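pasting for the record
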Amino acid sequence: MATPRKAGIPLGVMKVLDPRQLKPDSTETERILTVLDETIVKLEITRLIPQITGSLERYARMLGPEITSSLLEHQKLSVEIQHLLTSPGDEKSMRALEQRLKCSLRNILRLFLANPLLYHGLKYEVRARQSPADVFIKAFMEFRDFTLERLLTTPDEEKEKIQFMKDISLQLEKNTETISALRGELAGVIQTRDEEVSRKDKTIENLKTSMEDLAKKCKADIQLIMKEGEKQKKEDEEASQDRCARLKQDIQCLETQFNALVLQHRASELALRKEKCKAEMEIQMWVQKYDADMTEKQTTYEEVQAVYNEEKEQLSLLMEKHAMLLQEYTQIEEERRMLKEKEEEAAREEARRNDAATCIQAFWKGYLVRSIYKSKLKKGKGKGKGKGKK
């Protein structure tokens, strides 16, 4: 969102132009800055080591036995490596010595970092001479500020800064072109005047030469020519002065026009900035309105979500009840089906029994009928035989 402006310059550009406004706003940024600050401290300590080792007896009591012994060892390693550099030797020993020197330097830095008060005291106690390391440390500090600037500059502020610099560059280019054109015209006029004066001077010199040649012949003519030359020179100088005065007036007029254009452009720039601020205020109002609407809709959504969750819970309870009822209904249906099957089986068994009984009864009736019929036949045959016998 838009923020208050200072002197018509965007906030992002003000942050870039004034590094004091840059503050870390994240843990990652603070960690990066901590690493860079520690590196700067290590560089400064490394810069002070040669001065301290040169006057080690003076600072021995302040440094303590551990740091003093480490510095003495570091000094010996430095002397050995310088001796190896002056006289070529084995590369393996050279690398081993360099590794020992690096380890010694790390140990010294660790001891100094463990005692920051000692480092700050030595920083003001030891007067280090100017060296190329100072240039490197200064460049590294500028790199640290640049890194902080890049970490804390948002893409919108970067775009705003680039656009602001482009506008300034375009304005400067226009002003430079106008000034260059005016200077070119002035230089051309001055060059023309100088050429005319030079030409006149050459003419006068030629005339003087000719007059000196003719002095013996005619002094009167020479004096007349000198007078005419001086008169002509005065006229030319007066004409040149008049022309220079006109050119100065033209330059003043052009400068007045240039100042008027600058004021006009500044007024238009101020109007555009006011319009921009007004548009940013309107955008802020719309964003606030949007936030209010979204807050209201979020509240409505949360209420609807709460009702939905409650109904969902009720639905889950009903679904559980429905599942239980469905299970009971299925069990009842199964019992009904089994009962129906049993009834049908009993009916079929009853029908089979009825059919069997009917068949048995029919068979029994047939047997009885046949038995009666046979008895009757036997009786009839007995009667017939008895009649014959009689």
